[in-house]
């Protein structure tokens, strides 16, 4: 591309030399000053891009100034006795159009005025010997007005193309940003694919683990019965086997809940009744927690189309986390339900706030990841299951609280998941 640019510039340079050479061949041919001035104009024109690349701020002014000076010199050496009559006066288009290319409208007008003033300055010596006729005045005015005319026309064109350039630059920046986002999304999709494959594999594994677990549990129970009263140690050990198998079974069931593609059984559900049932079920799990529950349910809540069992699981998990966050020290859980709009879809918003320690800033990104837990006996699937069920219902869940306050989870469930 650079090579292309160089050859383009060279082509233009050759054209400049041809046109200025043409002027050199026209009378007065033997006027050395004229030829030297033309040569100087050619050099300025050829080296202008380099000058501007070197001095981007002042270069254009220097170039226009030089061209005005050289144009005035050319007029001085081509007009015979009266320089202002020189047929070479259109040479002033050169500085005028250069200014129109490099400056804004105001700058262009000022430079054109300066070029016109330089041209008109030849009136002063001429008026000492001759008188300015009215047709002479008209001629001069026409020439000067045409300078302005050309300047404004070129400047208008240049400003328009600068605007287009800016627009296309902005567009290409937006495109680059979208490309970046797309790449991120693709990476995320690949990661999800890998995770999904891993999930399927582990779900299969978990399923297979259930059968031997059943056999172990059954055998342990039989052992307990057989050993009744005989060997207390063996009986105790069999009891351990049985209770640990129960724990494993619960874990596997929980994992399968998460991994299994869910088929929603939608039915009209009252969100308040759903949340009440979840509250009761958690209260029954933590009878001695010493927690007060505050309910703030809006009037006239709509029923939502939801899978009752799964949505109850959502609120059980969230309320369970709230209870666990208080760690037996007592506290308060507030549950608020209100009608809401999510992405212009009607639905209900359920907010579960606790007075526990809250979620530290550095854990916020991770709490929805499967198997992330900060609890000694936690599995880290509670919130992943919540997020999955809410997603399946086309809803959303957010942790709304700041790190320095008790946690507050905001769940939105649409009236109709479509
Ligand atoms: N209400 C809350 N207050 C403070 N931290 C919370 C709260 N809810 C969730 N967390 C944080 O998010 C983590 C993940 O929660 P999640 O429910 O997914 O798993 P878990 O409760 O640790 O285990 P389980 O699978 O038994 O639910 C928790 O370990 C805890 O650090
Ligand atoms: Mg949990």
State the major sheet: 5 strands, mixed
The CATH architecture of the largest domain = 2-Layer Sandwich
Q: Which molecules other than protein and nucleic acid are bound?
A: adenosine-5'-triphosphate, magnesium ion
The CATH topology of the largest domain, please?
A: Heat Shock Protein 90
Q: Which assembly state applies to the chains in this document?
A: single chain
Order of helices and strands: HHHHHHHHEHEEHEEHEE
In total, the number of strands is 7
For the record, give the distance between the C-alpha atoms at the N and C termini, rounded to a whole number.
53 Å
Q: Quickly give the structural class.
A: alpha+beta
Helix content: 55-70%
* Residue runs with pLDDT of under 50 for 5 or more positions: 1-7
CATH superfamily heading of the largest domain: Histidine kinase-like ATPase, C-terminal domain
Question: In percent, how much strand structure appears in the residues?
Answer: 5-15%
In short:
With 418 residues, the protein is an alpha+beta fold.
Overall description:
There is one protein chain. By secondary structure, the protein is an alpha+beta fold. It has 3 domains: 2-132, no CATH class; 201-259; 266-414, Histidine kinase-like ATPase, C-terminal domain (Heat Shock Protein 90, 2-Layer Sandwich). It contains 11 helices and 7 strands. The strands form 2 sheets. It has a 5-stranded mixed β-sheet. Strands 1-3 form a two-stranded antiparallel ribbon. Mean pLDDT is 90; it is low at 1-7. Residues 317, 320-321, 382 line the site of magnesium ion. Residues 317, 321-322, 325, 354, 356, 358-359, 363, 367, 372-375, 378-384, 407 line the site of adenosine-5'-triphosphate.
């Amino acid at each position: 591309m650079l090579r292309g640019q160089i050859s383009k510039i060279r082509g233009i340079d050759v054209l400049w030399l041809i046109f200025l050479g043409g002027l050199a061949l026209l009378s007065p041919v033997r006027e050395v000053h004229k030829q030297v001035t033309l040569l100087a104009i050619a050099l300025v024109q050829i080296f202008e891009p380099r000058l501007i690349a070197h001095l981007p701020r002042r270069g254009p002014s220097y170039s226009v100034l030089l061209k005005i000076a050289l144009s005035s010199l050319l007029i001085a050496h081509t007009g015979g006795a009266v320089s202002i009559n020189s047929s070479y006066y259109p040479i002033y288009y050169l500085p005028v159009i250069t200014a129109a290319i490099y400056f804004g409208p105001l700058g262009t007008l000022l430079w054109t005025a300066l070029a016109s003033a330089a041209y008109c300055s030849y009136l002063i010596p001429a008026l000492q010997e001759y008188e300015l006729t009215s047709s002479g005045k008209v001629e001069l005015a026409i020439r000067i007005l045409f300078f302005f005319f050309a300047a404004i026309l070129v400047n208008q064109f240049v400003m328009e193309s600068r605007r287009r350039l800016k627009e296309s630059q902005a567009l290409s920046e937006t495109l680059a940003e979208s490309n970046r986002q797309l790449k991120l999304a693709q990476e995320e999709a690949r990661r999800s694919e890998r995770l999904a494959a891993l999930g399927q594999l582990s779900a299969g594994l978990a399923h297979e683990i259930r059968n031997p677990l059943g056999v172990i549990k059954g055998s342990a129970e039989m052992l307990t019965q057989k050993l009744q009263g005989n060997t207390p140690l063996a009986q105790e050990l069999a009891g351990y086997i049985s209770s640990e198998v129960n724990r494993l079974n619960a874990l596997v069931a929980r994992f399968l809940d998460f991994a299994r593609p869910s088929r929603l059984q939608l039915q009209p559900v009252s969100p308040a009744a759903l949340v009440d049932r979840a509250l009761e079920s958690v209260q029954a799990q933590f009878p001695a927690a010493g927690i007060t529950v505050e309910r703030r349910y809006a009037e006239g809540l709509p029923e939502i189309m939801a899978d009752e069992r799964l949505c109850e699981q959502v609120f059980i998990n969230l309320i369970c986390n709230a209870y666990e966050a208080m760690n037996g020290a007592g506290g308060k859980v507030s549950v608020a339900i209100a009608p809401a709009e999510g992405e212009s879809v009607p639905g209900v918003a359920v907010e579960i706030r606790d007075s526990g320690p809250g979620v530290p800033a550095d854990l916020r990104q991770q709490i929805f990841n499967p198997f992330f837990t900060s609890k000694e006996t936690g599995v880290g699937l509670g919130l992943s299951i919540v997020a999955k069920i809410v997603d399946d219902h086309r809803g959303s869940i957010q942790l709304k609280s700041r790190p320095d306050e008790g946690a507050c989870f905001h769940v939105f469930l649409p009236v109709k998941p479509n």
